[in-house]
């Protein structure tokens, strides 16, 4: 199976390799080109297409990337979580309401959700409830 299938489905413990997200096209696609602060990016469940995280919120894109780089995975804060679609289990595992394994809450002074990019690299749903094939 694909990396996303191995990590996001039927998994409670495994994750992308630390730094994997930086080897994808994410930074190339999302980094602002004119040195202004980036607009918010919505991260969608790879299985259901539901929005899970919206970032950066309350910080710059640069701060989001810096923190994510320091921890090895895209790192989200409470204000960036779409709580209607995300749950944090008692052991810190973070999952979508549809059961997709997303990552873990690894708090420092506050909650910090270290999330596998492949699990939040989905496409949104269209008006009919089908996952869009392209944006």
Note down, in words, how this protein is organized.
- The protein has 135 residues and is of the alpha+beta class.
- The chain contains 3 helices and 7 strands.
- The strands form 2 sheets. A 5-stranded antiparallel β-sheet has the order 3-7-6-5-4. A two-stranded antiparallel ribbon has the order 1-2.
- The longest helix is centred in the middle third of the chain and has 11 residues, at 61-71.
- It is globular, with a radius of gyration of 14 Å.
- The two termini are 25 Å apart.
**Into which percent range does the helicity of residues fall?**
10-25%
Element-level helix/strand string: HHEEHEEEEE
What is the overall silhouette?
globular
Strand order of the largest sheet: 3-7-6-5-4
Uncertain stretches: none
Q: In whole angstroms, how far apart are the ends?
A: 25 Å
* Beta-strand residue fraction: 15-25%
Strand segment count: 7
Which structural class is indicated by helix and strand composition? alpha+beta
Q: Please tell me the overall pLDDT.
A: 84
Number of contiguous helices: 3
Using only C-alpha atoms, the radius of gyration works out to 14 Å
Largest β-sheet summary: 5 strands, antiparallel
Write the layout of secondary structure elements.
Layout: H1 3-8, H2 26-30, E1 41-44, E2 51-55, H3 61-71, E3 75-76, E4 86-88, E5 93-96, E6 101-105, E7 113-115
Antiparallel strand pairs: 1-2, 3-7, 4-5, 5-6, 6-7
Key traits:
single chain, globular, 7 strands, two-stranded antiparallel sheet, 135 residues, alpha+beta
Brief overview:
The protein is of the alpha+beta class and about 140 residues long. Helix content is about 15%, strand content about 20%.
